[in-house]
Amino acid sequence: MFGFPVTCADGEYKIVEDLPVDAFSQECINKTLKELQDEQAGVAHML
User: Fold this and answer.
1) What is the average pLDDT across 8-37?
2) Which domain holds residue 37?
3) Does residue 8 have a pLDDT over 90?
4) What pTM did the predictor assign?
5) Is 33 among the domain residues?
6) Which long-range contacts (CB under 8 A, 24 or more apart) does 40-46 make?
7) What is the mean pLDDT of residues 12-20?
8) How many angstroms separate the Cα of 15 from the Cα of each of 3, 20, 21, 28, 29?
9) What DSSP character marks residue 46?
10) What pLDDT is attached to residue 32?
11) What is the total count of domains within the chain?
12) Cα angle vertex 11, ends 29, 4, to 5°?
């Protein structure tokens, strides 16, 4: 699960789109995604 930057106006939330992601940040995102996928695979038999 990942969070997204949002704005809020008049009680409505909107995801901020088209933000640049530098190489280091993308590497961190990819690492976290892999960890989450591994965790999901590890408990899939319990679901």
Assistant:
1) 96
2) 19-47
3) yes
4) 0.67
5) yes
6) none
7) 96
8) 10, 14, 15, 20, 18
9) G
10) 95
11) 1
12) 0
